[in-house]
Design brief:
about 375 residues; globular; mainly alpha; about 65% helix
């Protein structure tokens, strides 16, 4: 029988008998095809024992890798605890609380110190909220492509350690309230109560979840106004509320596009089209309330129409840039990164701050 005609495929195995190439065991013919071979398979042509161990070479590395993980976690424990309280989010307190100074002119050293005290209180309160929220959401965070890397969700910080950290932060917050002016800490206490209710279930209610987050920023502003003894403008409060509501809704829109509705149950009450309409509506409300604040309530109002003329376009550009990042570039997952890392936003904010500073310096005090 002519082997080259009836079974051409095995020709590569028998064509070079002296030094055959190593046989790939996964590429051997099926048993039905082996019957067509006129000669048995030469076992001496199998790969050398050294070659058979090649696929299993990564195995010796596994014990060393497993041993390196606990060591890395031990080295990263302080860093993980710091990441748990999210220092990158503290800039929100620095950005919102001092806005109360806009209604107090001229500024004094006491006003600046009291504003710093308000920032410290809200920083401690927000740190408590972050840890409690991560404890409650650790199972859901493991399903999120980004949040699964958080310290508790990834297992780098145990729930027991996170609970102990919460107790320490709560103790420090209590000391802050006792050492400060009597009964002027209630906005921080109300923020803490709302945030804990949010973590325990209100975050699963569509719209309510975003409105609670925005209300927390108004309470920051109110805390700053109370401590410096200033009057809180209704237009400024509305502007801060609508701006933060827009950022909160934008974050939920980004989560829907990145991870779907499974991660956050409240997202089942939203659609992309609904969120797009809400974000644009709230952006318009933010721009209008800002202009009305400058015209009617700002401490620099009166003879400063040029400030409104020049700073209003900055405000509108900032809102338009955020909408562009959210709707066109599919960003918005982390509003802090969007607002403080985007070059166009930073340049625009610097120009706006320069205009406001100019108005404060040129406007006569009293």
């Amino acid at each position: 029988m002519d082997i080259t005609r009836s079974s051409p495929a095995p020709l590569r195995v028998v064509a070079v008998p002296p030094e055959p190439e190593p046989v790939d065991l996964t590429a051997l013919p099926e048993p039905a095809d082996l019957t067509a071979l006129s000669q048995p398979v030469d076992l001496t042509s199998l790969p050398e024992p050294a070659d058979l161990t090649a696929p299993s070479q990564p195995a010796p590395d596994r014990p060393s890798t497993a041993a390196a993980v606990p060591e890395e976690r031990r080295r990263g424990r302080p860093r993980d605890l710091l990441a748990l309280v999210r220092p990158g989010q503290w800039v929100k307190n620095l950005a919102v609380v001092p806005l109360a100074l806009l209604d107090t002119h001229p500024w004094g050293a006491a006003d600046l110190l009291r504003t710093g005290w308000a920032v410290l209180g809200f920083t401690l309160a927000s740190a408590v909220v972050y840890v409690v929220n991560d404890l409650a959401d650790r199972e859901r965070d493991r399903l999120h492509p980004v949040k699964r890397h958080r310290p508790i969700a990834s297992g780098r910080v145990s729930p027991a350690v996170a609970t102990a950290l919460t107790g320490l932060l709560a103790l420090a917050l209590t000391g802050w309230a006792v050492a400060g002016p009597a009964w002027q800490w209630w906005p921080t206490a109300l923020y803490l109560a709302l945030s804990l209710a949010y973590s325990q279930g209100l975050k699963h209610v569509p719209l309510v979840d975003a409105f609670i987050v925005a209300t927390g920023f108004v309470l920051r502003l109110l805390q700053g106004a109370l401590l410096i003894g200033g009057r809180l403008s209704e237009w400024l409060a509305l502007c801060v509320f609508s701006l933060c509501l827009m950022l909160s809704l934008g974050k939920r829109r980004h989560e829907m596009t990145a991870a779907g509705r499974a991660h956050r149950p409240a997202l089942r009450g939203y659609t992309l089209a609904f969120l797009d309409h809400l974000v644009v509506l709230v952006a318009v409300l933010t721009a209008v309330s800002y202009v009305l604040y400058l015209r009617d309530d700002a401490a620099l109002a009166g003879g400063t129409s040029f400030v409104i003329l020049l700073s209003a376009p900055c405000a509108v550009f900032g809102l338009a840039r955020y909408l562009q990042l959210l709707l066109v570039e599919e960003g918005g997952g982390n509003p802090v990164h969007v607002l403080f890392r985007d070059r166009a936003t930073l340049v625009n904010a610097g120009l706006w701050a320069a205009l406001v500073a100019l108005a404060l310096l040129t406007h006569p005090s009293g």
